[in-house]
Amino acid sequence: MDDLSDIEWRTSEGKIAYPDALAEMERRNAAIYGGKQPELVWLLEHPPLYTAGTSADPAELLSHEFPVFETGRGGRHTYHGPGQRVGYVMLNLKKRQADVRNFVHALEDWVIRALHEFGVEARAVEGRVGIWCDTPQGEEAKIGAIGIRIRKWVTMHGFAVNIDPDLSHFGGIIPCGISEYPVTSLKQLGIQASLDDFDKALKKTLPDFLAAIDKKS
Questions:
Q1: Is 110 in contact with 103 (CB distance < 8 Å)?
Q2: 176 is catalytic
Q3: What do you get for the CA distance between the two ends of the chain, in Å?
Q4: pTM value?
Q5: Catalytic position from the list 112, 176, 193, 195
């Protein structure tokens, strides 16, 4: 299993502008590939904004209330904003399993395990992007988004989990192209948790994630 000391764990205070985050990911990707800096798990918040992935359909952008940023990650439109924990995961898969599908499944499972720490029966659903759970009303809802980019086998982007965002902001898009289901958050599920609480759950479950993407012996 990986020595966790080889991975930088960074938590940023305040709201990080999306272009600044994207520039930092691009810079760090090259540094990791070149062996000049360690891998990175970067936890942050953004101000309210929408991002458009490589499969984004302009018809699914319903509002221009917030800035829209093109991004090189896979997927369609997503919302980021205060009260949402964004995790950018920058790992060198050449040191592990050079398997994109396995990485995505492991990333989903990591978020699911972290949510389980709060008693949320989260899950991935075949054929439907994101992390899902049931609301107290018995309705299936999306609580997290996954979107990655891999360049030179170094991963970029990652996940976004709704802790306590303004859920009305999601109304400006069709999240990930899925209109049949609502979005939810830990707060809406009746769970009082801070971003720091969720970060601790992520760190606790990090070893399982790294084990899942390690090279098979």
A1: no
A2: yes
A3: 11
A4: 0.93
A5: 176
